[in-house]
Design a protein that fits this description.
It is a single chain. By secondary structure, this protein is an alpha/beta fold. The protein has a single domain, classed as 3-Layer(aba) Sandwich (Protocatechuate 4,5-dioxygenase, Chain B). The chain contains eight helices and ten strands. The strands form three sheets. It has a six-stranded mixed β-sheet, sandwiched between helices. Strands 3-6 form a two-stranded parallel ribbon. A two-stranded antiparallel sheet has the order 4-5. Strand 9 and strand 10 form a beta hairpin. Helix 3 packs across helix 5, helix 5 packs across helix 8 and helix 6 runs antiparallel to helix 7. The longest helix is centred in the first third of the chain and has 17 residues. The chain is globular and about 50 Å long. The N and C termini lie close together (9 Å). The protein binds fe (ii) ion. It comes from Profundibacter amoris. InterPro entries: HPCD, Xdiol_dOase_suB. It is an enzyme of class 1 (oxidoreductase). Its EC number is 1.13.11.15.
């Protein structure tokens, strides 16, 4: 039987790549890079065979899509922020078998789920940036999942639940990663350069900190109750649907686990970011 052996909410901000590759910015996101290293150690300790990444930069408008290609290899430059993130080489094994099982499980519940295999479909940086560090050495397969910007939190919680069912029926040890922001109010253009290391608004900062308190205290039902409004009022990245998928996979209101903070809360270009694991015991 398969199992979710790691679950986490993770950052993917391009300032991490700047910190890693540009002398002028060296070290500005060291805490995120260190957090990725801890996530890598946690994944290796747990025997992760496949990373499923809910990628808020692979944004779809209809249905539930997985990138089911057997291999993901190319060089990536961001079309959104090419001055921040360019020339990222990648080469990972995909997981077509697990993708097919997930699609069949979701289709069995009347979800419009689709496994994509077009050779021209590349990966986005919500997957690539964290994988560069967490999956260093390409020790595990990578299965990117698109995030639907027009689906509801409730739909994504259900899709996450079904996805966990499919993982349980597979032979894989899986890490599920929600790759996206907490609050996500980018600075307006005229403030974007000076705002690289700050949050856009005290309201968003306070909401993010309160959410992290709820997570630390295990107050999952209250968090899930506020999630749709939190996403709306704090400019959720892709509607915070990556978070909804993650919590669905963890059991939603039945979840009773604890968090481990690998990278404490930090602001980047106006947005709020963390690397936090959720204990997956009893999931699968
Ligand atoms: Fe993002």
């Amino acid at each position: 039987m398969g199992q979710i052996v790691q679950a986490a909410k993770i950052t993917h901000v391009p300032t991490i790549w700047m910190s890693h590759t540009m002398e002028k910015y060296r070290g500005i996101r060291q805490s995120a890079i260190d957090g990725y290293a801890r996530l890598r150690a946690e994944a290796q300790e747990a025997g992760v065979e496949t990373f499923i990444v809910f990628d808020t930069h692979w944004i779809v408008n209809q249905g539930f899509h997985l990138n089911a290609k057997p291999r993901h290899a190319d060089t990536f430059t961001s079309h959104e922020l090419p001055h921040m993130l360019a020339g990222l080489d990648y080469d990972y094994r995909g997981d077509p078998e697990l993708a097919e099982l997930i699609v069949k499980t979701l289709q069995g519940a009347d979800v419009r789920a689709l496994a994509q295999t077009d050779e021209n479909l590349g990966l986005e940086y919500g997957t690539l940036l964290p994988m560069h560090f967490i999956n260093q050495g390409s020790f595990a397969r990578v299965l990117p999942v698109a995030v639907n910007q027009f689906a509801s939190i409730a739909e994504n919680l259900e899709w996450g639940r079904l996805l966990a069912q499919a993982i349980a029926a597979s032979g894989r040890k899986v890490s599920v990663l929600a790759s996206g922001s907490l609050s996500h109010a980018f600075w307006p253009n005229d403030k974007s350069a000076e705002g690289i290391n700050s949050i856009n608004g005290e309201f968003n900062r306070q909401m993010d900190l309160r959410v992290l308190e709820l997570w630390e205290q295990g107050r999952w039902v209250e968090f899930l109750d506020m999630l749709p409004e939190y996403a709306e009022k704090c400019a959720g990245e892709c509607g915070m649907n990556d978070t909804a998928l993650l919590f669905g996979a963890l059991g939603a209101a039945d979840y009773a686990g604890q968090i481990t903070t690998h990278t404490p809360y930090f602001p980047s270009s106006g947005t709020g970011q963390v690397n936090i694991s959720f204990s997956p015991a009893g999931v699968a």
